[in-house]
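Methods: holo model generation. Sequences were used as deposited, without trimming of termini or removal of tags, and paired with ligand SMILES retrieved from the corresponding compound records. Each pair was processed once, and we did not select among multiple samples. The sequence and zinc ion SMILES for this entry were:
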Amino acid sequence: MLTYQAKPLFSDKNLRIPVEAKWELSELSELSDGLSSYPVLEPLTVSGVLFNPGPDANGKERICFDGTARTVLQMSCDRCLERVDVSLETPVNASFVRQNGVETEITFDNMDEVPLEGDEIPLEEVILSDVSLSIPMKVLCKEDCKGLCPVCGKDLNFGACDCEEDNLDPRWDALKSLF
Ligand SMILES: [Zn+2]
Ligand SMILES: [Zn+2]
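and the model returned the structure below.
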């Protein structure tokens, strides 16, 4: 879908290619953070620019992308499991580096560098991977969500339950009897 050739950018330093793209829900209906998948509620859009900043200090030729990806994911509150719609706005920055037959060792300084194998810039891959990495590990329906009672499972946001306050999860009793 997002196909851009590196050659014109390498040969013209003043060239800036605007990138505007949208993944319809039929093309991208869920996103995964590696552990769970979340339904995508609004089409993922990306807007940015591809440009050639000139060779770096080591004379390495590169093409940069600077942009922002946006979408809305359906997640669940970490405490009460209520549905939470999360708006993501992810900065996407990448440096595509021409290999010239030399393998580059990945260090902390060049983590954003993506080796350019052929002439095609793997922009789509980079965008989707950055968005996946930006999915929050935990979300709450509200800052002070009271969560579920560990004993009876009642949603405590809708009022207290009848469980004793110091009544721990009965599974702990089984554990305690081991000591
Ligand atoms: Zn909650
Ligand atoms: Zn309870």
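Residues 146-179 form one domain.
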